[in-house]
Amino acid sequence: MKKSILASALLLSACAGGPDVVYRPAEQKLPQHIKRISVRPFVNKTQQFGLEEKLTLKVIDEFLKNGEYGVVQESGAEGAVVGEITHYILTPIQYDVNLVPTVYKLNVLVNVRLLDRAANRYLWEEPAMQATKMYSAPTMPGGMTEESAREFLWELLAKDIVKRTVEGFGSVGSASQKKIPGAAPEPARAP
User: Fold this and answer.
1) Which CATH architecture does the domain made up of 31-167 adopt?
2) HSE-up of 93 (CA within 13 Å, CB side)?
């Protein structure tokens, strides 16, 4: 009885620790055999032309800036980033008195995976990595073009992809389903 009261008191004091108590899961780095990474050209599954090249180049640039893994052609890489742009949605959300759009919302979703080429399996997958930008029309003060908003989103997505690869699971979230810990990853599918 006394032991359970003591244990309860210790548990309560630990919970009341305030801002000093922070949950920090262990880092989940890539397997040690992965030293170099390649970035396959993204596949564009949207109606918008030319998105894939800019996103692919931005992801490569972000990996080069990070410097933790070498970026090489796929034939010399142990890991490969594989991705596709699945949604590109531009929505006018505010109008002036003449019903001319003045504010837009640009939303992009990508499906990104990291392939372990030696084991031929995916180490992680983010099936709905998302980036959103609300911006004023270029005719408004402080406004921007759709292309500028797109560049902003490519930067966000590239940083998220590199962070997910370098810092591991939990560093970036998407609308993906959570998997059971310890479950074997799915085998790689042919692109």
Assistant:
1) 2-Layer Sandwich (3.30)
2) 12
pLDDT in tens, 104-147: 999 999 999 999 999 999 999 999 999 999 999 999 999 999 99
CA distance linking residue 44 with residue 109, whole number of Å: 11
d(CA 58, CA 153): 10
Residues 6+ apart with CB under 8 A from 49: none
Name the residue with tokens 């090489």: 72
Q: How far is CA 84 from CA 20, 39, 129, in A?
A: 41, 12, 10
With beta carbons less than 8 A apart as the criterion, state whether 111 and 86 touch.
Answer: yes
Residue 133: beta bridge partners?
106
| Residue 27 in this model has a pLDDT that exceeds 80 | no
Percent of the chain with pLDDT over 90: 70
Residue boundaries of the structural domains of the chain: 31-167
The one-letter amino acid code at 41 reads P
